[in-house]
Design goal:
Largest sheet of chain B: 7 strands, mixed
Largest interface: A-B, 28 and 30 residues
Oligomer: heterodimer
Number of helices of chain A: 0
Distance between the termini of chain B: 37 Å
Structural class of chain A: mainly beta
Radius of gyration of chain B: 13 Å
Number of helices of chain B: 0
Order of helices and strands of chain B: EEEEEEEEEEE
Number of strands of chain A: 11
Shape of chain A: globular
Distance between the termini of chain A: 38 Å
Largest sheet of chain A: 6 strands, mixed
Helix content of chain A: under 10%
Helix content of chain B: under 10%
Amino acid sequence: DQQVKQNSPSLSVQEGRISILNCDYTNSMFDYFLWYKKYPAEGPTFLISISSIKDKNEDGRFTVFLNKSAKHLSLHIVPSQPGDSAVYFCAATTPGGRAQKLVFGQGTRLTINP
Amino acid sequence: KAGVTQTPRYLIKTRGQQVTLSCSPISGHRSVSWYQQTPGQGLQFLFEYFSETQRNKGNFPGRFSGRQFSNSRSEMNVSTLELGDSALYLCASTQGGSYNSPLHFGNGTRLTVT
C-alpha cells in the first residue's frame, strides 16, 4: 500500500522555467510533509517542509503547496537551474511523539535542460 | 560539523550470508534511522533508535535488526541474505527531540547480494 505517491517518474524542464513536482498521499493522519533532493551516489538532503496547518511554505526559489482536501502537495522551483537536476522525494509523517518514521514517495527524476 | 558517515560504501555478499553495516551520526544527534532504497519501492523505513533503544520499526522481516551504542553510533545487521536484499541502505540522524525534525542522511551503503 503506497501511502505517498509520486506519479511522474521523470520530468524535463528548460533552464529558467518553473519546475513543478507533484505528490499525492492517502493517509489523512499525515500532518507534516517534507521534500528531499538526491544526487547520484549521495544521500538525500532536506529541501523544504510544510506543516498541515499551512498551505504554503517558501524558501528562496523553492515553494511547497499543500492541498489537504485533495491530499496533494507540490514543489515549485523557480527559476530552474542546471544544479537542480536530481531525484526529488516527497515524504510524510504522522504525529508520534518524538519517534521518527518518514513515508517516502518513489521519487521524480528532474532534468534541467540548458 | 562532520556529516553522517556510513561504512562500508559498497559490499558484495552471497545469498545466505549475513552482513553488518555501520553508521556514525552527526555529533550531538541521538536519533538514528535506517532506510532501504530500491528502484521499485523507493525509500522504506527500517527502524529508528534513540538512546540505545529501538523507538520505531518498519515492516521488515526479523532478519533485519539493528542496535545503537552509547555514543549514538548504530549498526544494522541482515542475516540469511536474499537476492532481494540488494539495495542502497541509508542511515539518517537527527537530534531526536521531535518527530518532524528533518533527517540528515549519509551517502549510504550499496549492498549487492549474489
